[in-house]
Write a structure and sequence with these properties.
It is an enzyme of class 2 (transferase). Its EC number is 2.7.6.1. Belongs to the ribose-phosphate pyrophosphokinase family. Class III (archaeal) subfamily. Pfam families: Pribosyltran (PF00156), Pribosyltran_N (PF13793). There is one protein chain. The chain has nine helices and 15 strands. By secondary structure, it is α/β, with parallel strands linked by helices. It folds into two domains: 142 residues, Rossmann fold, CATH 3.40.50; 137 residues, Rossmann fold (3-Layer(aba) Sandwich). A seven-stranded mixed β-sheet has the order 11-10-9-12-13-14-15, sandwiched between helices. Helix 5 packs across helix 6 and helix 7 runs parallel beside helix 8. The termini are close together. Bound molecules: ribose-5-phosphate. The site of ribose-5-phosphate (R5P) has 16 residues, from strand 12 and helix 7. Ribose-5-phosphate binds next to strand 12 and helix 7.
Length: 291
Amino acid sequence: MIVIGGTASNSIDDKVAKILGSRSSKVESKLFPDGESYIRIPIEVKGEEVVIIQSTYYPQDKHWMELFFMIETLKDLGAEKVISVIPYLGYARQNRRFKDGEALSLKTVLDLLYRSGSDELITVEPHDYDTVISFFKGKVKIVDPVPTLAKELKKITSNPFVIAPDKGALSRAERMAKELEAPFSFIEKERDRNTGEVRVKYSHISGVENKDVIIVDDIISTGGTMAQASRIAYEKGAKSVIASAAHVLLIGDAKDKLSSAGIREIIGTNTVIPPETVKVVDVSELIAVRI
Ligand code: R5P
């Protein structure tokens, strides 16, 4: 087996190769003067099982295209099997047509992934497990970072209470609550599909007085969802609020939004490269054991 790191592997490739004791290499890449991506696989892969590691965060389109180029090249060069490890699955949230006529982007990228030659997909906590499994025609393995995040959270909370900031995050919150042996509850939110703004539809939260509240989500993007949930937790009497997510993007003024909503700590993973102030747990080992 050979592990190859793409341009957005966040060093997960080095750690995974070390854990597996396998050979490893880095893809060669550059941009042509007109902005197109150049990709080269610098090693012999004929007859090999190849694990290619590439996260598909910003710039998502570039990282996805590079991945398609790498996979097809590997197969052209005679690789026996290609396993794509995509720690952050870009476009995971465009998994439904929320408005008529919208592109089903997740289906398109997963279709292209399969058609490029990827036999297997391993990804960390995608937005919705079911759509990933149904859109990718090969084998899918999903890595759950919750137990690892919970280990860190145990160190910084004493009386935890877990909140899902929307119904979609309920199963994550439930998994986290189980790990922390804590109660959990949820909020129902609505997002304006034109402005992107989030609004609380209904809060089911009670019993958070003097608790260390942990809001659990798959992703923190603009921070709107976390900030709303944090305000509600404080209104209901929470002692402190921590934001926990697999993928911490923090777009634009997200960090300020979170701190003005009283969030004392943000915890995420290395599926993306978050700002220094975020506490990051490494998912390399969790990925390696699934290969
Ligand atoms: C959506 O349902 C997701 O699970 C997240 O709650 C959402 O995408 C977070 O985005 P933002 O940080 O922009 O509110």
